[in-house]
Design goal:
19 strands; 19% strand; alpha/beta; 31% helix; 11-stranded mixed beta sheet; single chain
């Protein structure tokens, strides 16, 4: 690694690792009517029409480098029948979308029917069949290559994302999708998806790929606050977390970019609602952009209006505005973020955060950024009503169609630290500001309530047994 090419110099990373944990400065939780917009049916129809009439460049951006290993954590020991996940897995194993592949592998490797293998309680063989390279190798696969749905054949999330994009992301005769993938799986994913798209008999689908840039890697410290090194004595680097993908996103030249995680997909029969809400959020962004472009033109002509300041305050939650920061705030990337009702999912949520420049701003804050000893944070967390499902639509150009440099809108003082194990020893690691957290901290943000049915993540393999994934 050429350390001079690092986006975040090593000395800055070490300072961050040596600091006390940095928490978000929470003002209050966003809620319906106070930071989260609830759209009625008439508005939904109007916004859908707005998006349908839009003729700009559209891209779907899917972070997809995550490994499947966590999904299968409980599959490593299937003899633990008292474990509810294990019990459900074995009882409903024939309902999984990869059951055909599993039966075939079982016959190839053990010359047995799968039912017979389970009846004989050969749980370790079953586990090996699913996880190891001699079997389906899911312990070493990206999550996006694991079959999630079963139609005539099984479909993995990469394929489902393509099918979804066909339904809402076709503009100017083009359907454009971009996946971020791990370097070790890129060729496999590209070949698989090229073959799948060929079966669709469409010439309008373009798929791009990128990997997390090594310049975003981070260092680690041991418990003695010494730099961690590998067996050759070289500085140990690790990926800087999904916040590093802001640099991949920065390479996308489309006017409108939809962001959605690789594991949040639904079966074919449930995709109509998904697509409708994508169009609604897209229409919301298009309508909002028109207003912002109007005020951007005014400011460039020397007109600084109270109307513009009221618009920024009412729309983006800014508390302190003046002519001195009006232009800077207008010329920012925009994001419209869908929010679902909080049903106890782990992860981030919508909050007002104190901001030295604007008084307050709307931000997506992760649980790790909340201080559990701070009474205001505890109160805000308790009354929080909504959750971030990562259903985001971005506008990354100004009224002149000039693209923003997204690296200029990162909160570079924001970071995550955690304790990991490296070669049997604890180390303190650093992650860059999360993609929809600190990496977009200085964007203009709007939160919109979306139905919980649009959020169907697969965190464990058993989630594939839910109705939203079963055909």
């Amino acid at each position: 690694m050429d350390t001079e090419k690092l986006f975040f110099p090593i000395e800055n990373q070490i300072r961050a690792l040596e600091k006390e944990e940095r928490f978000a400065d929470i003002d209050r939780a966003a809620s319906i009517g106070d930071g989260i917009d609830r759209i009625n049916e008439s508005e939904r129809n109007s916004l859908t029409k707005e998006y349908e009439e839009y003729c700009g460049e559209v891209m779907k951006f899917v972070p997809a480098s995550g490994a499947a290993s966590r999904m299968f954590k409980h599959v490593h020991d299937l003899s633990e029948r008292e474990n509810a996940l294990v019990s459900e897995f074995l009882e409903r194993i024939h309902d999984f979308p990869f059951i055909s592949e599993l039966r075939e592998k079982c016959n190839d490797l053990y010359h047995l029917d799968l039912r017979e293998l389970i009846a004989n309680q050969r749980y370790q063989d079953l586990s090996d069949l699913i996880l190891k390279p001699s079997g389906l190798n899911y312990a070493n696969s990206p999550k996006g290559l694991v079959p999630f749905h079963k139609v005539e054949t099984s479909l993995n999330p990469f394929q489902v994302h393509v099918n979804e994009a066909v339904k809402y992301a076709c503009k100017n005769g083009k359907i454009q999708i971009h996946f971020t993938v791990s370097p070790s799986h890129r060729m496999q994913v590209e070949e698989m998806l090229a073959a799948y798209i060929a079966t669709l008999n469409r010439g309008d689908i373009t798929v791009g790929y990128s990997v997390q840039r090594p310049e975003t890697d981070t260092v680690a410290l041991d418990m003695a606050r010494e730099m961690v090194r590998d067996e050759l004595g070289n500085t140990f680097f690790r990926p800087g977390g999904h916040g590093a993908l802001i640099y991949n996103l920065n390479e996308i030249d489309s006017d409108v970019i939809f962001i959605k995680n690789i594991d949040n997909v639904v079966k074919e029969s449930a995709q109509e609602m998904q697509s409708r809400w994508k169009q609604i959020l897209g229409g919301y962004l298009v309508k909002l952009s028109k207003k912002i472009f109007h005020f951007q033109r005014q400011v460039d002509e020397g007109i600084y209006s109270d109307e513009a300041m009221s618009f920024l305050s009412d729309t983006f939650g800014y508390a302190n505005l003046s002519e001195s920061n009006l232009k800077e705030l207008l010329f920012r990337p925009i994001r419209v973020c869908g929010m679902v009702i909080n049903q106890g999912q782990p992860g981030g949520g919508p909050f007002y955060v104190k901001d030295k420049n604007t008084g307050t701003s709307l931000q997506i804050v992760e649980a790790a950024e909340l201080d559990k000893t701070n009474s205001n944070h505890i109160k805000a967390l308790k009354i929080a009503t909504h959750f971030n499902p990562v259903d985001i639509v971005c506008g990354v150009k100004n009224y002149k169609s000039e693209k923003y440099d997204l690296s200029e809108f990162i909160d570079k003082n924001s970071f995550f630290t955690s304790i990991k194990n490296y070669k049997g020893k604890e180390i303190k690691t650093l992650e860059l500001p999360g993609l929809w957290n600190g990496a977009m901290a200085n964007w203009n943000s709007v939160f919109v309530e979306v139905p919980t049915e649009t959020f169907n993540p697969v965190k464990t393999v058993n989630d594939l047994l839910k109705e939203s994934h079963q055909n």
